[in-house]
Predict the 3D structure of the following.
Amino acid sequence: MARFLARRLAQGVVIVWLVATATFALLHLAPGDPVSASLDNPLTPPEVRAHWRHTYGLDRPLGVQYVRYLAGVAHGDFGFSVPHRESVAAVLAEAVPNTLLLMGAALFAAFAVGMAIGIAQARRRGALDRGLGFATLLVYSVPEFWLALMMMLVFAYRLRLFPVTGMFDPVMHPYFGFWGRLRDVGWHLALPATTLALLGAAVVARFQRAAMLDVAHQDFIRTARAKGVPERGIVLRHQWRNALLPVITLLGLALPALLGGAVFVEKIFAWPGMGLLTVDAIGTRDYPLVTGSVIVGSALVVAGSLLADLLYAAADPRMRES
Amino acid sequence: MHLVAWGVYVVITIAAWRALAHLAAPRGMAADTPRDPWSALFARLWEQRDGRMAIGVLIALIGLAALAPWLAPYSPIAQPDIVALHNLPPSLAHPFGTDFASRDVLSRVMYGARVSLPVALLAVVVSTTVGTLYGAIAGFAGGRADAIMMRVIDAALAIPRLLLLIAILVLWGAVGVPALILLLGLTGWFAVSRLVRAEVLALRDRDMVVAARALGARNSAIIRRHILPNVLSPVIVAATLGVANVILIEAGLSYLGIGVRPPAASWGNIIQDGADQIGTLWWVSLFPGAAIVITVAAFNVVGDRLRDALDPRQLDGS
């Protein structure tokens, strides 16, 4: 078990290294140098440009730059964000917890709802199965950003149930007590988290249904039925517990897509997380911030799939043995 | 001009797959393999009602896209009266309304299909070709080369595709549609290569391959006659589901303003035109989004049904 973990951890480090190398290569293959974005004005005198190139070390040989860049990444130094007037690490440190809150809430709801739908579909084949199957297929085919816009249109603009954007009330938040603030954030969290959760639930439901049906014809189910175990017990204790493993692997696999979805959802609901930062950094051509969030995003995905592996090991006794 | 280019895209795509299917079809065999894999799969798809519906939807979409210059009521980029005709809600004259620049949204959605569909189809042709080659080489080579090639795939699959594409497109600035297609294709072949490698590994030591080798067949002949035909079916399924996925990704990138760039209409950037005022101008974003959902759902249904047809295990249950 410890060896398995160590190997997965080493793999994770290699992946983050590959991503960092790829972004470095992209930065240097791209037309123009990273400084020119902030010095786009053609009237900038060449001496000033040379000064900044020297300050950022861009006049050094490429190999030296690469080593310095990697060393920086290893220390959590992704460079300086000019539009934010702060180091990229500091900007990201503020945003990452907000993204984790959004994704955590969405993941929890997605798995709870998705599993329930999948089990219900597998138990009652027929009209219910077909109806839910059609619904999950449609949700599965919806672009995240469009679903976010439609949720906003219906629940924020038309029904006025939830706030349109933001993470808390811009005026009242500082005056709330602890519970008041919690409620405020939860109220703002509802729409973005529901959007992400709906998309996730559709994926989980499709997986859970297939896994339940795979197990349904196995011998131990027939044995349980022959023993006279009540139907509820068969489904929950025998069928579902065995159909849980593929869904846990999905947890690790779904993270990259979920993070991608969070980019759009954060942008549309102005949720101050990594996704919003990244999209805004596109607009300001803030190269260090874009590459920094790509690297941190991949690191988050790697950490998440490591967590999924641990969960898998906890759920599958065969894994614990080896 | 556009129509010609678009027609060429579609013909090349279909022809490429048909050619591959023919190339891969076992030749000179007995009559018990009556059809090439392509038509056999299509027949299975046609047996199911939702499969037929999805095919119908896709044919209708392709027709609408191809005939857009004749069917669309207005030009997709003309701005007839930016004061009197902008931001009109849906009406008989403009069934999907007009946008901030007085352009007809229905016409833009129809022309958008001429961008979004071929981009996705061609990107998947690229990713499927690269993925099939890579996977076949890894599976056929085996040993250390295979192990190294697959570790690379593991790493690549852990990178969030959307973040990577965002990074590339931002750093490269404005890229044209052909470059966008290449980028979408080259970031999407990892899963395909894994699938193909698994199939090739399973096939490599089958009796027919061993027999062919014993008879002195060359590797290229073995790949062409024994490996490819058996790998083709799962690859077609993966490609179909891949098209659905790429349509969503391209729409997202265009929505962010770094995919297909205005004034060309793609479904993603039409949605963007209405996004900032979704509370009032809902029609600008609603209709292109609905077009995406219908198209992607149709591709997903086709992919799902083809997969069911290939996996006999699932037949008894459903």
